[in-house]
Design brief:
mainly alpha, globular
């Protein structure tokens, strides 16, 4: 819940309205959609980085290596998709590619932060992993799944999905 709540607060605090103002309403809409996608991917990389850092702060380096490798492999197409989204709305090749790479730069920073925080207290490991999972789940539902945003119910759909996920996790654990 903490990870999802943190990203909900960030989502409410970060606005792109003044940055993406444009004379043509269609162009403005396309720009806003592209940049919302870029923000979604960048925010998505934050909990991924935290998860990597938390994994390396744990006791099993082989599992941490597997996690980091898996996340790194899927980061390449994410960066390409960001670059393509920006290229589609008129940005140049170089700038689009640079912003695609930049959208992933938060991941190593978050990995270091996750490792440092867990290094302070190994007892926080399960909570940090849960927060990273909740944050990632929230970003996927709130910013990536467009059907959840229909009819102005996006926030409630995101909160309900995270709550349902937590309930199912508790039931799975309690009932074996």
């Amino acid at each position: 819940m903490a990870g999802a709540a943190l990203l909900l607060v960030l989502d409410r605090c970060i606005s792109t309205d003044g940055i993406l103002a444009h004379d043509d309403p269609r162009t403005a809409h396309s720009l806003k959609r592209a940049w919302m996608f870029v923000w979604a991917v960048a925010l998505h990389n934050l909990p991924e980085g935290l998860a990597i850092g938390v994994a390396y702060a744990g006791v099993d380096v082989d599992k941490a290596n597997s996690l980091a490798t898996g996340i790194s492999i899927q980061d390449v197409p994410e960066g390409l998709v960001v670059a393509l989204a920006l290229r589609t709305v008129g940005y140049g090749r170089g700038l689009s590619a640079a912003l695609g790479v930049a959208s992933g730069l938060i991941e190593p920073v978050a990995a270091v932060a996750g490792a440092v925080l867990i290094g302070i207290s190994a007892g926080l490991l399960p909570f940090a992993l849960a927060a990273a999972a909740g944050a990632m789940l929230f970003v996927i539902v709130n910013d990536v799944v467009p059907e959840a945003q229909q009819n102005g119910n996006g926030t409630w759909a995101s909160v309900a999905l995270v709550g349902g996920f937590i309930l199912m996790t508790v039931l799975d654990t309690a009932l074996g």
